[in-house]
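To: structure subgroup
Subject: Chain for Friday's discussion

All,

I'm putting the inputs and outputs inline so they're searchable in the archive.
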Amino acid sequence: MKINIQQEERIINLTNFLWEQIIVVNCNLDIILLLSKMKKNYPEAMALSPAFYSLTYKSSIEFCLSIITRLYDKNGKSTIISLLEWCEKNPETIVAIQNKVGNKQITLNHFKSVMVEGRKEFNSMLPKLLNLTKLRDKVISHNDSKSLDSLDKVINENPIYFLDIKYLIDFASEFTKCIITYLTTVVRNQHAKNISDLEITLKKVDNVLKKDT
């Protein structure tokens, strides 16, 4: 099959754009989870800069919700939904591009079956997308307190919603990674390497505080 250059550029640009957003949203999710963990493990160390950690925590949650909502915007042109729909309509192009780069991982029938499973999983997530909107509205409208405890309460009162957020991020990450791998043979990593450095810093601060007491 002869590849339409415009179609090739369209799918490559779309997956690259989505991947940039996915890296950012995963980074923010990792920060949220890490700060929640550190608040329990090193409360004295974090208490030295409460405003900084509270603002970072709240900003990460709001930014994370904002990005993931855009990634699944049914009216958007560069979204997970548009990627899924494009791949469903143009399976021959995906296979032709992977043959061009020497990546003969899949046949046309196999790719079509992958899209069927992708669509099935996406449809099963529709209630989660509704929960995403609810949690986003609750968190972003929750401006009466900036504390970690207050935001933890909002999330803990809606645990299914927070789990849904992680599920949606994981689906976006794995589906986009799958398409990029077919197109380029490159397997990408959506997680930043040095996020956990914060724990090393807090542990050292905590040790100093214990020595001083």
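Points worth raising on Friday:
The chain has a mean pLDDT of 85.
Residues 45 and 208 are 9 Å apart (CA to CA).

D.
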